[in-house]
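Audit log entry. Action: structure prediction of a protein-small molecule complex. Ligand: pyridoxal-5'-phosphate. The ligand was supplied as SMILES and no pocket hint was given, so placement is left entirely to the predictor. Protonation state taken as written. Sequence taken verbatim from the request; no trimming, no tag removal. Recorded inputs:
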Amino acid sequence: MGQMNRRELSRQLYERAVRVTPGGVNSPVRAFGAVNGEPFFTASGTGSRLRDVDGVEYIDYVLSWGPLILGHAHPHVVEAVQRAVRKGTHYGTPTPEEVELAERVVALVPSLEMVRFVNSGTEATMSAVRLARAVTGRDLILKFEGCYHGHGDSFLAKAGSGLATLGLPSSPGVPKEITRLTLTVPYNDRGAVEEALSRHGDRLAALIVEPVVGNAGLIPPETGFLQLLRDETQRVGALLIFDEVMTGFRVALGGAQERYGIRPDLTVLGKVIGGGFPVGAYGGPRQIMARVAPQGDVYQAGTLSGNPLAMAAGLAQLEVLERENPYVRLESRATRLVEGIVAAARRHGVPATGAVVGSMWGVYFCAGPVRNFEDALAVDRELFARYYRECLDGGVFFAPSPFEAGFISTAHGDADIDETLAVVERSLAKVIDQG
Ligand SMILES: *Cc1c(COP(=O)(O)O)cnc(C)c1O
């Protein structure tokens, strides 16, 4: 009852929203369906905190689902956008900001010589696959179960029956003729990769992977796994695409490819690169990127691509990251958080396991180890949902699903972690005591 009143304005907005927008949201996970909850509506954000329309504050570990590595409303980003917007919002001609951001991205991400900006991660992965198909003259792609590459038809595929068979649509509206071109195998499974490539390698255009899986909780690659992907794709003449939409500028300045020392053929970026604005990008060596129109023959375009406000925000965010190089600090804070949550869960008799890679983190309520999506499915979803709602009521905003990575920003201080761990402890106590 208290909570109902406490979130009254959010509740009213949600009632209006569901009448005019499917599920009341513009992206499904925002509806809190996986935790049997209702969304709160945000009024503003500062640093590590969000404030909802009812004035309730939350420590935010969602951070716009990844982009806000400096926290909300970082002054350097806000000022850059304010300066940019006074000059106009978009011109439809090239601008200096696009060149500057492209130069910076190419300098930071080891495998990139050229980059093309688009408006979302989805657009970028779709474009990268088109380019890979053009370059190789082949049609098949291979992805991993539990990896998310945006909502393009090719990626909404689930494994068919049996190992290394061609995919089935995972959503109505996706033609099976398209998902038949997508192979799906388990992450961290060397044998499955080798078998799929032995069987289909000569028809494979690209293997696409989240080098650190952040869309099934958080699953780091096992030692040697990314190298195996590099070797195997080279062997069969397919391109290796790193989808670094989440890991880019998040697990290291140069992304997972810098952290693990693997050079993919194509890299997909998003999230952090836009500083909270809609930006995606794909890039690679000059020789491959030269195939993209108008330099080459592979078509791809965008009315608002390279938008100057978005470029300014991205540049400002990358400038701060380059200056501060905060990844060691972020990782140690995230580690303290994850170790604290796992320890609290075990104290209450809940099996738990966790992982941290840079500023990405994850906790599973299961014994683990979690090496792939199937392992992740062992989590106690019911327990997670109840724990989740208690944490939210306590003022901590975790991702509303047991299968999403958490994030941390440079704005999260030790006091935030302490406060969070206290809320976690109280929430677990309440949930376990209630049975
Ligand atoms: C978020 C995400 C995408 C999709 O990006 P959008 O901007 O939501 O379209 C693609 N790949 C990965 C790894 C992501 O995390």
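Audit: result stored. The chain has a mean pLDDT of 96. Residues 120-122, 125, 148-150, 210, 214-215, 243, 245-246, 270, 280 surround pyridoxal-5'-phosphate (CB under 6 Å).
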